[in-house]
Every structure is written in C-alpha cells, then in structure tokens.
Sequence to fold (93 residues):
Amino acid sequence: MAGAASDAPRIAHPGDPEAPGLTVADAGLAIDAAAAGLGVARVPMTLAAADLAAGRVTQLGDAEASARAYWLMAPTPQWRQAKVRAMVEFLLG
Fold:
C-alpha cells in the first residue's frame, strides 16, 4: 500500500496472520500508517476499499483469500461486554 517498495517494513494489526514489524491497534490504523509511508499493510480488502478508490493507498500484488471468515468490529466500549467477549471466544474456539 501507499506505493511502498515490496521490501518496505510490514505494518501489523491484531487481525494480521503474519505480524512482524510495526504493530498498531487495528486494521484502520494500519491503513493510516501505510498511507503515511510507514510501510506495507496487509488488511481486509473491505476495509481498504475506500482508501484504494480515493487513491490514498495503492494495492501491491493480487488480493489473497483469507482463512479467517470473521472480522469483528465494534467501538471500544462494546468489546468489554460479556456477550461480545463470548462471541469472540466462540469464533476463536
């Protein structure tokens, strides 16, 4: 992303299956970091689509299928709720 060279540092987020390099709190911040030129972010296409369309970042290579079927997104306070934690445990189990 962000026109970085293929050997640019990786920007990882908690959902990234390969998490070397700079680590940020979520995929949105990984996109922001890539747009700022800090490296390459591997994020779900759904989350990067608007930034790609706006030309804020660029795609390097082809999109890859993910073995992960779920991306849970919620405001921080909701992650503290027992029902949300239970759902996460169920999906990870």
Observations:
- The beta strands are 10-12, 22-23, 40-41.
- The chain has a mean pLDDT of 81.
- Helices lie at 27-35, 45-53, 76-79, 82-92.
